[in-house]
Design a protein that fits this description.
alpha/beta, seven-stranded mixed sheet, five-stranded mixed sheet, 14 helices, 12 strands, 36% helix, globular
Amino acid sequence: MSKSKDDNRKPHGKFATKLIHFGAEIDEVTGASSVPLYQASTFHQADLEVSPEYDYTRSGNPTRQALEDYIAMLEGGTRGFAFASGMAAISSAMMLLSNGDHVICTEDVYGGTYRLLTTIMNRMGIESTFVDMTDIEEVRAALRSNTKAVFIETPSNPTLKITDIGEVAAFAKEHELLTMLDNTFMTPYHQRPIELGIDIVLHSATKFLGGHSDVLAGLAVVANDSLGRRMKQIQNGMGNVLGIQDSWLLIRGMKTLQARMEASEKSARRLAQWLSEQPDIDYVFYPGLPNHPRRAVHEKQSLGYGAVVSFDVGSGEKAKRLLSKVRIPLVAVSLGAVESILSYPAMMSHAAMPKEVRLQRGITDGLVRYSVGLEDIEDIIEDLEQALRG
């Protein structure tokens, strides 16, 4: 259900309060304490002369609408959209572009986004240039006469490089470029890109927003009504919408976002510090560490450091040995769950990226990515220690 018309029910208060009181937390008809599941594919139209709010679930459904309103409110945008996956959200945003257009993209972007741009969008006549977006001069140098959009991922996945969001957004506005930003790692709890000038914020809601490794979903939020109308046309036309059960599960997961993020980040900061003190770790990537080269930039635009820590153990052989010996984390694709997840980007999230390209971006064979869950941090460290020491 969409937000209540009653002013007393409109979301207000601080972020933790808005997560619980988001406008549709009480069913207006029955008083039920959660959004109803409207498990229907179509809706009766009593008066053909009046355009109904809902006619077919691909075009709109009250359960999915509640989720879309929810994420739009949290991100500070005008309209939200729920898709079948994070990549469905990203690919739908890319459909705003046309044949002959050019995109400037973060170079160490998620492997799925890289695959989309280099194997699918290029066949549609949309070109991409990947740059180190920590250097605004590289971004400026990539500008072409046909450049139409900038795609940002900050912190980047998996090397956690930090892009100055306001700086790139100002450059884009100067040249009338559309800006898109993947906010999966930070979530709106830590980072709200629309407030910094970004046009479209994207999420793999499968990760921290859902938070329980039980739902596949993507979300997009737009900064203005014009973009909202265009995105709605794409969502309806392509039909890659989120299902009703998954919409409900995602709403339920999002209610605990702040509590989960705070606990996981506290542990991640401790883990990053411990890893940085280990002699057999080549390098630790985490924006909360004092030696992170862009820590000050991150702190300027984000309220926290997140729950993902990447580190390089020196070689593929050592990385695989570590993966085989850990006992607590899932060794799996994905991140952002209540359970810790240890991933191997070279063979998982970035397997689609050619090795030479991957290495150029600092994604080595020895790099692993630890998404810190809600387990006790002492157990996590003890487990990693035994795995590293053999």
